[in-house]
Amino acid sequence: MTDAPDIIIQEVAPRDGLQIEKAWVETADKVRLIDALSAAGFSRIEVSSFVSPRAVPALRDAAQVFGAIRRHDGTIYVALVPNLRGAEAAIAADADELNFVMSASETHNRANMGMTHAQSLAELSAIGKRTLDAGKLLNGSVATAFGCPFEGTQARVKVIDTVKRYRDLGAGGITLADTTGMANPRQVRALVSDVLKLVPPTQLTLHFHNTRGLGLLNVMAAHEVGARRFDAALGGLGGCPFAPGATGNVCTEDLVNLCAETGLRTGLDLDALIDLSRQLPALIGHDVAGQVAKAGRPLDLHAIPEPLLQPG
Questions:
Q1: Which positions are catalytic?
Q2: What is the value of pTM for the model shown?
Q3: Which 8-state DSSP code applies to residue 60?
Q4: What parts of the chain have a pLDDT lower than 50?
């Protein structure tokens, strides 16, 4: 009997979750959150993003955060990078893995990255060489893989071609991102089945948003056809600052609860995650979308109403 999890959940709240928050979260508070997530059992945590502080001011302390976290053996600490300059900074901060993003949609790529596809691929070529020379892992994310808010549905062949280009340029890992929550289970099954012919399940991550309430359904649809790695954010935080209507990610504790109820092992401490999620409103200044932290686990039973305890 193996102790390996049936499903790998990568926590992205420190990066994708905090990047759009209006209230500044202090560096020390970010570090405490990441350390608590490490203690909860995550093998992969996306810590921050090395982007222009003008574009994403909420993450302007990425280097300081990487320098202060307590690293757990067996946990991969990831940095998102948009260009070679960001990659150099991430390597200097000793990120374990660099996550490069290019959108399937040309319009979204220009809005999100400020580059054409050709420019992004040129950057990735330089990033790939520098990353691998530094002994770091490289992941390539395909944003808007399931649809773009500007262009609509993206041709499957375009997504597949981007995956192939990523692999050719040295990306060991691939992420398919549903950036604004446009995916549906039927679409997910078809695209993930095709990509799994090119990328093994151990190297493919699915990144779903819950914009239209289908996040957990899409996770299960991808899992049914063989996907095993998924991004999620504590409390359901997150959203792309350059994509209209891009509400939060699939909620970590809700997904872990679903896995627990359906017999899928995650290796994560659900009670610790619920406790952490309940602390988020005080950290960011508003309520969060997660449901399990509000309602409790299914068998967190309540006291019998007093009138029912009275005799006859």
A1: 240
A2: 0.94
A3: T
A4: 1
